[in-house]
Amino acid sequence: MRGWKKWxxxxxxxxxxxxxxxxxxxxxxxxxxxxxxxxxxxxxxxEWELALAVGKEALAMAKQxxxxxxxxxxxxxxxxxxxxxxxxxxxxxxxxLNRALAIWESACGSxxxxxxxxxxxxxxLCIARGQxxxxxxxxxxxxxIREQAFGPDHPEVATSLENLASLYRASNRLSNAGKLEExxxxxxxxxxx
Length: 193
Prior knowledge:
Layout (H helix, E strand, L loop, with lengths): L3 H6 L20 H15 L3 H19 L4 H16 L3 H19 L4 H16 L3 H19 L4 H16 L3 H18 L2
Helix pairs in contact: 2-3, 3-4, 4-5, 4-6, 5-6, 6-7, 7-8, 8-9
């Protein structure tokens, strides 16, 4: 997949959402990949309706190509959720994310990095709804999965730390936020990101 992680970093949001796009070897094929690329283009242009329509087409194609419980379906659902969250369609975003989470947990295991993606995005959704207490354990689980999968000094861990720190800042736990931000900054500097 061309640049989805980079793309999210350029959105200018304090809190970073994650896509679950496979980096190759997808069972869905090049036509699906083309749709995902178009979805990215529309999202970057804030063309929500077009992004949503293309995303739904990609979802239908993925379900037909690999079945409804495949990780590519979860990745597509996750991206649809990001579009819905951007449009403040929180209930629909939550439905997409919960389905993506269930697929990834079933297909990949509960400690797989793709599970952390869905958890991160569920926590972002909680924050968008002002549900800070619900977001914290979700972020902590996402962070634990990423630390286990990638090691404590990986940029994905830094993203989780930054998002958790933002939550702590929003809930006036400044000391906790500062510690996480320092660790994330150290990780970013060590990785040149």
